[in-house]
Amino acid sequence: QVKLVESGGGLVQPGGSLRLSCTASGFTFSTYGMIWVRQTPGQGLQWVSGISSKPTQVGYAHTVKDRSTISRDNDKNTLYLQLNNLKSDDTAMYFCAKCLTETWCHYSADLIRGQGTQVTVAS
Fold first, then answer.
1. What does the pLDDT look like over 84-119, one tens digit per residue?
2. pLDDT tops 90 at residue 55
3. 37 vs 30: CA distance, rounded Å
4. What is the distance of C-alpha 20 from the center of its chain?
């Protein structure tokens, strides 16, 4: 079955950087768009970024645009999110999710996502 495993989160100081990874299995990774979403306590899931299957199209939320880079390695079945100049507002649980087609998508409840990796930005 589809399995997504996120890693790379942690505690980082404001202004620092992290690279999140999402390892996929159970489906043909190279044929699906993928997204990153995040969630803070008491709030819903916020779409962060998306990338098409052949990584020719990417999209970013305005909250992370210019500070983040989404990428993927289809040979390794792995999705990445590079986060730079981190701010306290970036503190959240980050999830990757599989879109339903080859294009990237916005989050919906029917998407499969992983268990998440926690990012905490604090001095």
1. 999 999 999 999 999 999 999 999 989 999 999 999
2. no
3. 20
4. 7
CA neighbor of 7 nearest in space, from 79, 88, 71: 79
Residue 34's H or E segment, with its range, is: strand 34-39
Alpha-carbon dihedral of residues 10, 69, 7, 117, nearest 10 degrees? 60
Q: How far is residue 97's CA from residue 90's CA, in Å, rounded to a whole number? A: 18
Phi, psi of 70 (to 5 degrees): -100, 140
Pull the structure tokens for residue 54.
Answer: 């052949």
Distance separating alpha carbons of residues 112 and 3, to the nearest angstrom = 8
SS3 89: helix
Give the distance from CA 122 to its chain's centroid: 20
Helix (H, G, I), strand (E, B) or coil at 28: coil
Place of tokens 């202004």: 15
| Residue 84: CB atoms within 10 Å | 14
